[in-house]
Amino acid sequence: MHFKVRAAAKEDCKEISRMIMELAVYENMPDQVKTSHEDLERDGFSPNPFYECLVAEVPDEHKTKDASSSLCVGGQDTLGSSTRQVKRLKCCPNDGYTVVGYALYFYTYSTWKGRSVYMEDLYVMPDFRGKGIGTGLMAKVAQVGVEKQCVRLQFSVLEWNKPSLDFYIAKGAEDLTAKEGWHFLRFHGQSLDTLAKEAPKD
Amino acid sequence: MHFKVRAAAKEDCKEISRMIMELAVYENMPDQVKTSHEDLERDGFSPNPFYECLVAEVPDEHKTKDASSSLCVGGQDTLGSSTRQVKRLKCCPNDGYTVVGYALYFYTYSTWKGRSVYMEDLYVMPDFRGKGIGTGLMAKVAQVGVEKQCVRLQFSVLEWNKPSLDFYIAKGAEDLTAKEGWHFLRFHGQSLDTLAKEAPKD
Predict the structure, then answer these.
(1) What is the C-alpha radius of gyration for chain A, rounded to an integer number of angstroms?
(2) Is A147 within 8 Å of B119 (Cβ atoms)?
(3) Do A35 and B192 touch (CB under 8 A)?
């Protein structure tokens, strides 16, 4: 199937927001999504953006048959408690989608090696998998990074997601948690606020 | 001991570069450091910087006695193969340091929660540990992040570094690798170049 990978524009944020929710539904955690397409517009399309994004687009003749069909991935039951999800369903167009995947990434920095790029999300709608779109998106992130002199492309994968882990490792990625024992830590909510209040006065 | 935490200036890059090397020596991997202070200047102090940095400074009366003393952390034997290290030793001032720690961080993005901050390095020179400087630096990163509406402060820790892991967890951090099974993956070198070449043509 022919597809195109291009840099996302501000106008794509509703589509990206829809696919972020689809991915969360697939992971049975739609309630966890707190970002709106307005947040994505503000954070990705103003000076000093927090992220960049690529989208994969298919020609009109391949667009999805029903705008809401992709939202059944995780089973309708998982949608019950998500008012955000219901709201989004109502405002979707009904004539199908041509934007069928996205890769969201940002630049990071290694004090040993320098510039790096981190891929936060990689998603392709279920009906469009196995056609090279995921690899195309990921390879484009790598290319964009290399053009910016990044020497690493990094990302995180859940260990139960064995097919994805195997796929990335077959492509040449190193699993640094398995190899070197890196653990990923996070302060958030109350622990983040408490820590911030310990900052020394200027 | 009185200390001050402040945003790094371009002029601090030689000091930051020195401490990056000290940390690598402590980890027995000085040969892994490929960044120079010129790289740090270019990547952190131009439009759209790849990172931000805080430094901890002590008053003149507390400065280190010998500029090179801190470089013995990992044992002189580890320095043998590092010409970069030897070069740096030669260009160090001999009247001690007042910049005794740093925290290097950058902004990242969660598609579920929005803006986040990631702390790449946190380092305090051995003679200045146990005085609250590390907590001060980390708390300041949290404060800077919260002021930018970041909802997470994230970082990675090696699992053999149990004292650090315990310290962060006691402060309220969650270990997401232990709790949710997140693995950290990386393409670099040949695997990154090969992947980048798979990018679909525009």
Answers:
(1) 18
(2) no
(3) no
Is A154 close to B191, i.e. CB distance below 8 A? no
Residue the block writes with tokens 């369903």: A89
Instruction: Using alpha carbons, list the distances in angstroms from residue B92 to A172, B9, B24, B60, B85.
Output: 40, 19, 17, 17, 11
Task: Give yes or no for a contact between B178 and B168, defined as CB atoms under 8 angstroms apart.
Answer: no
pLDDT, position A95: 66
- Determine the residue among A144, A151, A187 to mutate to test chain B binding: the one whose Cβ has the most chain B Cβ atoms within 10 Å: A187
Task: Give per-residue burial for B64-96: e unless 16+ CB within 10 Å, then b.
Answer: beebeebbebbeeebbeebebbeebeeebeeeb
Which 8-state DSSP code applies to residue A40? Answer: H
pTM: 0.86
pLDDT in tens, B147-174: 999 999 999 999 999 999 999 999 999 9
Distance between first and last Cα of chain B: 58
Backbone angles phi, psi at B184, to 5 degrees: -105, 120
- pLDDT score of B95 more than 80: no
Q: Which residue has the tokens 């990094």?
A: A154
Structure token digits, residue B60:
């003149």
Distance, CA of B8 to CA of A198 (rounded, Å): 20
- Looking at the partner chain, which of A51, A115, A186 has a beta carbon nearest the beta carbon of B109? A51
Q: Which of A25-29, A42-46, B114-118 has the lowest mean pLDDT?
A: A25-29
Alpha carbons A116 and B39: distance in angstroms, whole number: 13
pLDDT of residue A76: 30
- For B196, list phi and psi in degrees, rounded to 5: -60, -35
Model confidence pLDDT, tens digit, residues B31-71: 999 999 999 999 999 998 999 999 999 998 888 875 544 44
Does residue B97 carry a catalytic annotation?
no
Tokens of B73: 């952390």
Tokens for B102? 């740093």
Q: Does residue B129 surpass a pLDDT of 60?
A: yes
Q: Is there a contact between B15 and B97 (Cβ–Cβ < 8 Å)?
A: yes
Enter the tokens of residue A41: 């517009």
